[in-house]
Amino acid sequence: MSSYTPSSSAGGVGSADSAAPRRNSKRPKYSKFTQQELPACKPILTPRWVISAFMLVSIVFIPIGVVSLLASRDVVEIIDRYETECVPQNFRNNRVSFIQSDANKTCTRRLTVTKHMKQPIYVYYQLDNFYQNHRRYVKSRSDSQLRDNSSWNDVSSCKPEDDSNGLPIVPCGLIAWSLFNDTYNFSLNNQQLAVNKREISWKSDRDHKFGNDVLPRNFQNGTLKGGKSLDPTVPLSQQEDLIVWMRTAALPTFRKLYGKIERDLQPNEVIHVTLENNYNTYSFNGKKKLVLSTTSWLGGKNDFLGIAYLTIGGLCFFLALSFTVVYLVKPRRLGDPSYLSWNRNPGGH
Amino acid sequence: MLSIFAETKGCLYMQITRLVKSVVSRTTLAIGDGANDVGMLQEADIGVGISGVEGMRAVMASDFAIAQFRFLERLLLVHGHWCYRRISMMICYFFYKNITFGFTLFWFEAYTSFSGQPAYNDWYMSSYNVFFTSLPVIALGVFDHDVSARLCMKYPLLYQEGVQNLLFNWVLILGWMFNGLLSSIIIYLLTANSITGQAFRKDGQVADYSILGVTMYTCVVWTVNCQMALSINYFTWIQHLFIWGSIALWYIFLVVYGSIPSTLSTTAYKVLVEACAPSILYWLTTLLVISALLPLLSYRAFQIRFRPMEHDRIQIQRRRSESLERDVAQSRLSESSETRNSSDLPAEVRIRIDSLKASSRRKNS
């Protein structure tokens, strides 16, 4: 292909023939927008920008990572897995039949406090391998019934837990039916540790999603009880355990808030937990754990965020250094027009 | 290959065009201004009609209409080059943003035992392509330039980028798709591992399904729009408004949608205002998606340094020659009127002038 000399005219589209009289000109009205000549900034990834961008990211991320990691290390957490040990020895081979029987399910556990725990200390129960995010499970509820007493009949979306013995269940659905029913009682030095079970759910749920005129009716009345029974005199907006449970969890391993302990715990104190091991997780090999945790400004104990920030900050720092080395060792005059491919091969392609 | 015909019958034009198309099997462009050109204009892949003395019939049968024959140069070199770049980038980016979004849903499914539960509320999913990621694509597809019109005309061989299909080949397409996959993996892993499990706020509350959905979606919207900001080279107020406005629109949408009664907003009821906004962890997790932008940034930095494309080189040269002109003007102002010869210019400026002179000599020879 022969070399091409650019034409000297830089005529813009719409520039009229200069010989024609102005009043007959069909030239469209000029505007910066239609001619695509708006004031613009045209950033280029020069070496300075690249290195500055990477350095900025690492300078911002590494301190955040350190701070997050420190916050997570400040949180004190006691986790106790109890579903296997709370089954008596003679039933260990047949745990499902144990949990479905009428045997005594009380179990005592001992928790030792390792570090000073400032109040409020949050008590959670943690379940593993429980898919609260399964599609059929999530659908199996009736929001209108939960909110409003007049819709007590609206159970169509709740199959198979919509009615029993011909009457609709309030609250209907699989989520409510499978309400967690283990209970925990804490004592320290033979004194009862009070657990505050109020305001453990979201305020918007209590005020707007669960009606204060809706009472449980015909609940857990069938042949198979899935979980806890509800007091039929207490309206749903005050049944905080139900409200917490009905906020379906995101992943198969999840924690839900059980209550708050509102006093400090000192190191080496031993807490005795009397728990009722009622909930059947044995049919699906689920795990049950009791968790006591403090919180920091960031939340609970999770090193992941801090480590992620440090890793990415470190990676950016490494990239900034390597780009600096590359630019210094092999400086290439970018913008040298002799590098344009048609200038390098004047003979053609 | 260029063929010129004159004073021939219209049907012959059409047959010649058909013959050329079948023999050469490349994209053909036909330009004409009269009624006898209509057949040829329609037969060719691209028909350019000239409106003028012979009437508007050619214009009505054409794909592009210009007023004078000499505007063809600008049509091809400026608009053709720009449109090629815009369309190729838009298609690649469109695949990228939908792959990023779709694969986060897929990774979440793995943790719901593949039951089909979507990670996001229905309304979020429907409005993804309509509200939160559509305007930046329009800004890319309609307004983006890589090189200004003046430089497109000055370096006409830049048009070869389109002819050689350098911006829309399988390597680039698969590269963008891979970038989408990578972004979705990073977003999912970072969000799922930071927010879930432990309490995500100081008051001990735990993140449930709706909060994970909101956090992941926020990260997706930020990542996808910031990738757009990294890919385009031309920022007017329109691009800024569309890109940052789309991100802001997502937060506004959350607030508005979250405040309509929970009969309609179901899982999104007050999710930003009550649950997410007071949680520092939510904001820090959003900031962490800068890591999803690092692959593209590193790749572009590497590419510009080691294997720059023609338009990259021209952009950098333009930047340097602009600063050179500024230096020359500056030195002229600071020098007195007697000492006007070039030997008194700063050494670096002298070197730059010499290299530009040499390159223009080379071009003209």
TrEMBL record, chain A:
Q: Which domain of life is it from?
A: Eukaryota
Query: Hey, which family's this protein in?
Result: Belongs to the CDC50/LEM3 family.
Where is this gene product found? Answer: Membrane
Q: Where does this protein come from, organism-wise?
A: Hibiscus syriacus
Q: Disordered: where is this region?
A: 1-32
- Compositional bias annotation for Low complexity: 7-19
Stated name of the protein: ALA-interacting subunit
Question: GO cellular-component terms in the record?
Answer: endoplasmic reticulum; Golgi apparatus; plasma membrane
Q: How does it sit in the membrane?
A: Multi-pass membrane protein
Q: What InterPro entries does the record tag this protein with?
A: CDC50/LEM3_fam
Keywords in alphabetical order, please: Membrane, Transmembrane, Transmembrane helix
Membrane spanning segments where? 49-71, 307-329
Highest classification ranks of the organism: Eukaryota, Viridiplantae, Streptophyta, Embryophyta, Tracheophyta
